[in-house]
Every structure is written in structure tokens, then in C-alpha cells.
Amino acid sequence: MTFEQIVFYFFSGVLVLAAVVVVTVRNPVKAALALVLAFFSAAGLWILLEAEFLAIVLVLVYVGAVMVLFLFVVMMLDINIAELREGFGDYLPIGGIVAALMVVEMAIILGPRRFGLAKVPVPQAHGATFSNTRMLGDLLYTTYVYPFEIAAAILLVAIIAAIALTMRRRPETKYQNPAEQVRVQRSDRLRIIRMPSEKKG
């Protein structure tokens, strides 16, 4: 067994173990930390596949931004775990059936016969001048340019919808009008009252 195979099995084992912990642990903070470990393990596997750019993006975007934000939200909300776990066993059988069906469908669709991967030669290592970032950019902006633009349009619509849902008027919420604040006069906010001085008797 070569060193690369040992590293591959190590990262794969850590990834599977971290994913199991994410699903089974009860504390959401521990689940988020286990998900961070899973992301790091996946980044290690991508580095083995000579996809350094994707590995760095995974660590910077998901671990450095998304998961940190998720941890802050979870810790600030102070979620009651007991209420979340109520009735979990009632939906466990149907959830298991749905999960089994998803695994079977993924095995059928992503099988090697569907993609012609039954007899795939072992990929050769590239030289030091090979840039997977350039190759990814060439594929993304030439072959897959239309799916890329469709995904960008969908994300734009999602951002606009999120802003529209956030900015909707609520009757119980107080709002400020900047235009009225700018037009305010001194007489509107300040009132001078003249009172005679009192003399001590």
C-alpha cells in the first residue's frame, strides 16, 4: 500500500466518521464542529485529486465563513434541544424508508455503467506547471457557460427574494424615515421654557 492510499483512507475514514457525528449528535454546536472536520477532510481528498483550488475554496468559504456564521447563530439563539427532539421517533421509520430510497436512486444514477466508468485507466500525475484553476476556468466559461449563467440568475433571484422577505413591513416593528430626520428643525425637537428664579425665604 502506497503513502497516497494510506492518506486517502485516513481522510475518507475521518470524513465518514465526522458525517455520522453530524447526523447523530444532539448538540448543534458539536454537530457544526463535526461538519467543519468533515469539510477539512473533504478538502484533503480534493488535494489528493490535484484540485487545490476547490480545496482552498471549501476551507475559506464554508469553514471560514458559513460555518462560523452558523456557530454564531446557533450559540446566540440558545436552542432548546429537548423541544427539537420531541416526536423524533415517530418519524424515524418513514425517514429511514426515504433515506434508503435515496441511496438506491443515487447508486443507480451515479453507477459506473451510467457514466462509462467501468474500465477507467488510472489518471496520470500532472507536472509542476499544470494549473487546475485555469482548466476549471476554461471549462466553466466555455463548455458550461450557460449552466453557470443559469445558476447565477437563480442565485440572484434568491437574493432578491430574501431581501424582499426581510424588508416587508410588520405592524409591530418601529421604523425610521431618514427623509423626515433630515428635514427636522430645531423648533421641532427643542423647546425653551422660561421660568422665574425662586428666592429662598
Structure summarized in a few sentences:
The chain has 201 residues and is an all-alpha fold. It has helices at 3-24, 28-48, 52-77, 81-85, 92-109, 132-143, 145-166, 178-182, 186-189.
Brief descriptors of the model:
mainly alpha, Four Helix Bundle (Hemerythrin (Met), subunit A), 201 residues, 67% helix, 9 helices
Report on the structure:
This protein is an all-alpha fold and 201 residues long. The protein has helices at residues 3-24, 28-48, 52-77, 81-85, 92-109, 132-143, 145-166, 178-182, 186-189. Helix 1 runs antiparallel to helix 2 and helix 2 runs antiparallel to helix 3.
Mean pLDDT: 81
Query: What is the name of the CATH topology of the domain at 1-80?
Result: Four Helix Bundle (Hemerythrin (Met), subunit A)
So what's the overall shape?
elongated
Low confidence ranges: none
User: What class, by secondary structure content?
Assistant: mainly alpha
Q: Architecture of the domain at 1-80 in CATH?
A: Up-down Bundle
Question: Rounded to an integer, what's the Rg over CA atoms?
Answer: 28 Å
Q: Quickly name the level 1 CATH class of the domain at 1-80.
A: Mainly Alpha
H/E element string?
HHHHHHHHH
Q: How many H/I helices?
A: 9
Percentage of residues in strands: under 5%
- Helix proportion of residues, in percent? 55-70%
Name the CATH superfamily assignment of the domain at 1-80.
Answer: NADH-ubiquinone/plastoquinone oxidoreductase chain 6, subunit NuoJ
Largest sheet: none
Number of strands: 0
How far is it from the N-terminal to the C-terminal residue, by CA?
A: 105 Å
